[in-house]
Design brief:
- This protein is α/β, with parallel strands linked by helices and 291 residues long.
- The protein has a single domain, classed as 3-Layer(aba) Sandwich (Rossmann fold).
- It has eleven helices and ten strands.
- Strands 2, 3, 4, 5, 6, 7, 9 and 10 form an eight-stranded mixed sheet that branches.
- Helix 4 links the parallel strand 3 and strand 4.
- Helix 1 packs across helix 9, helix 2 runs parallel beside helix 3 and helix 3 runs parallel beside helix 4.
- InterPro entries: SAM-dependent_MTases_sf (IPR029063).
- It comes from Strongylocentrotus purpuratus.
- This is Histamine N-methyltransferase.
Length: 291
């Protein structure tokens, strides 16, 4: 299995797999709408109650990807706060460009004083190299990124220490049984060592409450259509297999025996519905942690 490679080590393949694979089945528009509505209904009130409108508002985005969620946050915050510093961290340069372009377009049209700072690289490198890691933030967002930030408690504690008093950290997590069980049952996958049987949202809640932070959570159930995953001729199926296993070109590099076992395992965790499509559930958690 030495030929298997970590998907995150191949930036071009990761972008292709994420944008043209997983994004096609992930109901991203539904999740974005739900998170945006929750932000506007809950987080904005906390922010406007806690901080004066004419103070500089500092926002840190962790693992922002294309930045669709963070752009909505900026637009909502810009409707109230007159000065915003937007700091964004993302290791994938290609995905990052989308957020940069959209944020620049919004900034040029918005009347608030808006300053964006971009850091391309992992969060650990931002912590160690960038002076903006020493700033205090009103709001920190981590949308589908806490899986990749290293030791959970250490990273979470560091981020919370960067919040101002009354600051907020908003986290969105996806916990798909099929993906988690794939790693737990197939330890030959390159990144299987990162996955435990624990619920990440439960771990974050436990650490938060131990440190005296207030946590509120909203749960969403999202249905994933994995039909193409079981089609050997499907290019989308190839990309879904890579995403689920975090392995670049899995179907070309894993043995036939391993692939057959994976396909059988995945079928056991999907339901074939009346239309013939193969579907599974992903549980989304929107978590707001108040300092």
């Amino acid at each position: 299995m030495s030929s298997l490679t970590n998907l995150f080590d191949n930036e071009d393949r990761y972008q292709d797999v994420y944008c043209n694979g997983f994004s096609r089945i992930a109901m991203k528009d539904v999740v974005l709408k739900e998170v945006s509505q929750y932000f506007d209904d809950n987080v904005m009130k906390k922010m406007t109650d806690a901080f004066p409108a004419d103070d500089q508002f500092n926002l840190l985005g962790v693992g922002v990807g294309e930045g669709h969620h963070e752009l909505h946050f900026l637009k909502s915050l810009g409707s109230h706060f007159t000065s915003i510093r937007n700091v964004a961290v993302e290791p994938n340069q290609s995905l990052f460009e989308t957020f940069k372009t959209n944020a620049a377009a919004w900034s040029s049209d918005d009347k608030s004083n808006h300053d964006s700072r971009w850091f391309t690289g992992p969060l650990s490198q931002f912590f160690s190299e960038n002076p903006l890691a020493k700033c205090q933030y009103n709001l920190i967002s981590a949308i589908h990124s806490m899986y990749h930030t290293g030791d959970l408690e250490t990273t979470f504690t560091r981020l919370m220490s960067m919040l101002k008093d009354n600051g907020i950290k908003i986290i969105v997590l996806s916990e798909c049984k099929l993906i988690k069980e794939t790693f737990l049952q197939n330890t030959w996958l390159p990144l299987s060592f990162r996955v435990t049987g624990k619920s990440l949202s439960d771990e974050i809640r436990k650490v938060s409450e131990q440190k005296g932070y207030t946590v509120s959570t909203k749960k969403l159930d999202i249905t994933l259509d994995l039909t193409d995953l079981f089609d050997e001729e499907s290019e989308l199926g190839d990309k879904l297999a890579d995403f689920i296993t975090c392995t670049a070109y899995l179907r070309k590099t894993a043995s036939a025996e391993k692939l057959d076992a994976l396909m059988s395992f995945w079928r056991s965790l999907c339901s074939q519905e009346e239309d013939g499509r193969m579907r599974t559930l992903s549980h989304e958690s929107i978590m707001v942690i108040s300092k």
